[in-house]
Amino acid sequence: MINLKHEVQAKGFTVAHIKTDSIKIPNATKDIIQFVMDYGKAYGYDFEHEATYDRMCLVNDAVYIAKYKDGGWTATGTQFQVPYVFKTLFSGEELEFKDLCETKSVSKGEIYLDMNEDLSEGEHNYIFVGRVGSFCPIKPGSGGGVLYRYANDKYYAVTGTKGFRWLEAEVVRTLNKEDEIDISYYDKLADAAKASIMEFCDFEKFIN
After folding, report:
1. Are 50 and 33 in contact (CB under 8 A)?
2. Mean pLDDT of the chain, nearest integer
3. How much is the pLDDT for 41?
4. What do you get for the CA distance between the two ends of the chain, in Å?
5. Which residues of the chain carry a pLDDT beneath 70?
């Protein structure tokens, strides 16, 4: 693949992204695409022309957002794949309840919800969840708890949950608390995704 990269560059093209099984070439022509196909076969690769993008923003080695030449967006990497981020910033699709749920899991220990919102400072009410669960961020004052991972006799905040309160998704649905979901959690993720793109280009021009 490194040899292919150098050969493509020698022909005057830019290699925007390359992995062990793919290469992305801005402004690729039919000739350079055929060259890549033929070059791959010489090394035992059977390449396919997967897609042509109208635009693409690669924010690191593994994360990018792109729009197909014939319309529609595609995201690679968690940052842009978060349904709320993808739908509100790019595709414009209508949000569903499942888009506002987060699956959290731990490889060591167990997950607990500390339902301490109405308790005195320093008091706790740990509710056992398990090693995996689906949760929604909940507005303060709506009966949510703090998500913890319990391991080695200590409680640690579950990754990505700090600063917000949570309820199990099934509880939110059962108690009809959908309107109490804390959208600021998702807005924060969307703002971060937007900021990543703005490091490279004007966001509004990119999406429009």
Report:
1. no
2. 96
3. 94
4. 34
5. none
What global pTM score does this model have?
0.88
Give the contacts of 178 (CB within 8 A, at least 6 positions apart).
97, 100, 172
**SS3 annotation, the chain:** CHHHHHHHHHCCCCCCEECCCCEECCCCCHHHHHHHHHHHHHCCCCCCCCCCEEEEEECCCCCEEEEECCCCEEEECHHHHCHHHHHHHHHCCCCCHHHHCEEEECCCCEEEEECCCCCCCCCCCEEEEECEEEEEEECCCCCCEEEEEEECCEEEECCCCCCCEEEEHHHHHHCCCHHHECCHHHHHHHHHHHHHHHCCCCHHHHHC
Instruction: Write down the pLDDT at residue 62.
Output: 87
pLDDT of residue 99: 98
Q: Greatest CA span in the chain, whole angstroms?
A: 71
Which tokens is 149 given? 């991972």
- Residue showing tokens 């076969």: 41
